[in-house]
Amino acid sequence: MHNNWSSADVLLPYLPQAFREYMERGELPGGRGSFPAAHRPWLHPEDFKRTDATPPGGGAAGSDHAYMCEQLLDRYAIDHAILNGEEAIEVSTLANPYYAQALAGAYNDWVADEWLPRDERLLASLVVAPQDPAGAAAEIRRLGGHPRFAQALVSSGSQRPYGDPFYHPIWEACAELGLPLAVHLGGNAGVNAMPTGCGPPTFFWEAHALLCETGMGHVASTIAHGVFERWPGARLVLVECGIAWLPAILWRLDEDYRALRKETPWLRRLPSEYARDHVRLTTQPLETPCNPAALWPALEDVGARDMLMFATDYPHWDFDDPASIRLPPEWREPVMDGNARALYGLSAGEAVAAHR
Amino acid sequence: MHNNWSSADVLLPYLPQAFREYMERGELPGGRGSFPAAHRPWLHPEDFKRTDATPPGGGAAGSDHAYMCEQLLDRYAIDHAILNGEEAIEVSTLANPYYAQALAGAYNDWVADEWLPRDERLLASLVVAPQDPAGAAAEIRRLGGHPRFAQALVSSGSQRPYGDPFYHPIWEACAELGLPLAVHLGGNAGVNAMPTGCGPPTFFWEAHALLCETGMGHVASTIAHGVFERWPGARLVLVECGIAWLPAILWRLDEDYRALRKETPWLRRLPSEYARDHVRLTTQPLETPCNPAALWPALEDVGARDMLMFATDYPHWDFDDPASIRLPPEWREPVMDGNARALYGLSAGEAVAAHR
Predict the structure, then answer these.
(1) Confidence (pTM)
(2) Summary mean pLDDT of chain A
(3) Which range of residues forms the domain containing residue B55?
(4) Do the domain assignments include residue B289?
C-alpha cells in the first residue's frame, strides 16, 4: 500500500542543511511543497488516486492513518501491510544522485518516526536511490536493521537492469541485512531508460499496460548476472508489474539459456528455477482474461503459486480488492498469506514479528 | 524464411550512382562486401546461422536456392514461403534515411530480379526504411503492386512505436496497395530505441528472450493510435517476436483501455478485438513450457488460433521444424495453412496466386 504526505515539506527536518535549502529555495517541479523529481510523460487523465480515498478531513489520499484503517486495514482485517510511499521512489529519476539519496533517507526517517509507531500492523520499505549504488548501500546499512523495514525499495524505472554489476553494492548490502530488494513500478522518467522497447508510447492506458516490460528486464538481468548465485539469500520482489507475462518470459529465458549458457558459466540452474526460488511478484494488477481460468495454467507451469503475493495498490485507481480478487482455491492461502509470511519472516497469527 | 547474399555487393548495380560510390568507397562496418548498417551490441556467441545451412558449394547460409530447396522447401513440401532477406531490414538503424531507403530499394530490386523468378513457391517482403516514412511510402508505391511482394517489411527496432503519426505515410501506402505491414525482429541498434524496457541487457540469451518487448509496443501503439480504424484493411504482422506474451499484453491493454478510453475517443472496440482482426504473429519461436499444454489456454482466450502463422526462421539457429512443431490438433490447419492463405490471398492448392 501507499502512504503519502500532503506536502513534501514533511521531509525538510530530515534533510542535511545543504539539501534542506535546496528544497526550500530551489527549483521544484510543482511549486513549494511538491517533491523534487522528474515526472513521467504519461499523465493519467483522471489522476491516479481513488477519488474516494481523499480523507474526509482533507489532505492527500493515503496521508491519513485513521482513514486508511477505515478503508483498508480494519475493513479487510489485514494482519500486515507494507508501506511503499508515494513519490519517494521517484528519486531515481534525479540527475543529482546525492540529492536523490538525501531525499530517500529523509523519507525513510519520516516513515520510521511518523508511520511505523502508529500501528503495529505496518511494515515499511526502505527507499534508496539506485543511481547511487554506494549511497544506496550505505542507506541500507544505516536503517536496514530496523525491525519494521521489510525490504529495500527502488523504482522499476532505472538506468540499467538491476542485475548489472553497477548495482552489486545494493545487492551486497541487502545480503548483509537479509533484506529483499523490491522493485516497484515507477520512476519512468528523468535519467532513467525509456521503460518500453520501441521508443515512447503515447497514451497513459497504452503506456500503463506496457510498463510491465521493466519487470521482465529486471528478472532476466538479475538471473543472468548471477545475483542469486553470488548472494544465495537474495530475493527480488516485483511490485505492481503484473504477473501474466511471467511464464512467457521464463519460457523464453530457459530456451535461450539452454542454447547459449556458455555466455554465463556462473549459472548452474535454469532461469525459471532461479525465479521460482528467488523472485516474488505482487498480484497487483491481477490480469483478467475473458475466461478467468485461462490465466492460471501458464502460471502453474512456472510454479508461480509459490511466487505471488497479494497487493492492493491502495489508494490508487486500479486498487485490487482482497475480498473479490479471483484466485483458484488452492492458490488462496499462499498468495494471500503464506508466501509473504515466508519471505518477510512473519509468523502466522503474530501481529508484527521480529521478522529477521 | 531468410534469403541471403554472400556479399552485399550484389546491391551495387541497383543503387543510384551517388550511393553506389558511397558503398564502394565509403566506410563499411565489416570491410568491403559487408552491409552498411549499425550492428546490435548483443553478439551471438556461436553466430546465429544454423551450422548445417552453409551451402556445400560455398557462400552464406540462405544464399543458395538449390540448397534451400533441399533443406526446406522440398523437404517439407512447402507450398509458399516468404523471403524476408537477412541484413536488409537493418537499414532502419542508419542515421542517413536517404541512403537507408536507397539500400532497401536496391535489395527489393535484387530480390525481384534474382529470387522471385527462380521458384514459383516464393513470395517476398518489400523492405522499407521506416525512419524515412515518405520515402518508405514511395518505395511501397513503386514496387508494392508486384504480385509476388506479399507485404511491406520493417524491423522491430524503431525510433518510435509504429502506430505513431510519424509512420502514418507508411500505413497509408500499405492501405493503397492492400499490403500488410510486417515487423520482423531486428534493427535493435543505431538510431533506434533501446529494444527493452530498463536499459541495456548484457548477454545475447538474455537480450534475445526480451526482444519480444518491441512486438508488445508495436501492437499497443497501432491499436491505440487508431491505425485499424483509419485504415480498416490494415494488417500488422509480427515476425519472430514470439507469441506467449500476447495474452498478457492484450488483457492489460483491455483493462487499461476500459478505464481510460477517453484518451483515445477514435477507438470503438477493445484492444483485443482489434488485435484479433488486424494483428497476425508468426509462431517462430514457439515457446516451450514444461507442460506443453500450458501454452494454449491463454492464447485460446484471446482468439490466437486465428492470428498465428507458422514460420521457420530458416536458416537461423533457432529454426522451428514444421514436422515436429507441437500444436493442438485443432490449431494445426489454421496455423500451418489457413491463416496465411487468408492474409496473403493464397488459394488452397494454388502454387502462387495472383494474390491481391
Answers:
(1) 0.96
(2) 96
(3) 8-240+250-344
(4) yes
